[in-house]
Amino acid sequence: MSDWKHIDGSLTRIAVGSRTNVWGVNAAGAIYRYTNNDSNPWINIPGSLSDIGAAADGTVWGVNAAHQVFRYTGDQDTNNWKQLNGSLVRISVGSRTNVWGVDPAGAVYRYSNSDANPANPWINIPGTLSDIGAAADGTVWGVNSANQIYRYTGDRDANNWKGLNGSLKAIDVGSRTSVWGCDPADAIYHYSYCDTSPANPWINIPGSLSDIGVGADGTVWGVNAAGAIYRYTGDLPG
């Protein structure tokens, strides 16, 4: 993986808000935040999660193995996590006001931006997905259990989702022009920014990853099937 720098540690899921806001969870559910120092890269955050989402504005949400939903409050109080009603297996955070998730049945939910109705802080969005990525600019993509790929269009038309060619099992979005994913064989793909070549709107990036995280500033990290952690360096001078 010549375009990727190996970072010490072991994670199964990773989320990137920006170059300085990278979070992950390991196989045991332990939570880690990147220290911004490759020589001692991770600090453990109390709690236990199975998936996590992080935004450039510092917002962090997570879900645990029991599908409970939490928002990180450790930068505001000593409790670290505030639980919210709901049941999700996947979560993605573009910003404080753009949080999306998928429940165990594949139903899609968007955070209502209000804890004032604690019984149900989620809005159901028609569709069925297995993984989802949300960006600060409002861009949302998802993949379903058949590895089909969709871009959210519900803010522009009544169809909600536009299907794109390709096959991905994991997807993340940093912005409208920064969409990355991993296919069922762990091959890595970057969106070409172009739907006019519908036969293949994806560019293969050398390497092998099982999960990927993309920041609003274009930062990309990933983890492979063995839990090894990598940061993308292919956008840097050779």
SSE series: EEEEEEEEEEEEEEEEEEEEEEEE
Strands of the largest sheet, in order across it? 1-24-23-22
Assembly state here?
single chain
The total strand number stands at 24
Q: Shape, please?
A: globular
Might you state the CATH topology name?
Answer: Neuraminidase
Give the N-terminus to C-terminus distance in angstroms: 14 Å
Give the rounded overall mean pLDDT. 94
- Unreliable stretches (pLDDT < 50, length at least 5) are none
What is the makeup of the main sheet?
A: 4 strands, antiparallel
Per CATH, the superfamily is: TolB, C-terminal domain
Instruction: Give me the secondary-structure category.
Output: mainly beta
CATH architecture assignment name: 6 Propeller
- Tell me the fraction of residues in β-strands, as a range: over 45%
Count of helical stretches:
0
Which CATH class?
Mainly Beta
Give the fraction of residues assigned to helices.
under 10%
GO molecular function: carbohydrate binding
Organism: Streptomyces cellostaticus
Protein name: Beta-propeller repeat TECPR
Keywords: Lectin
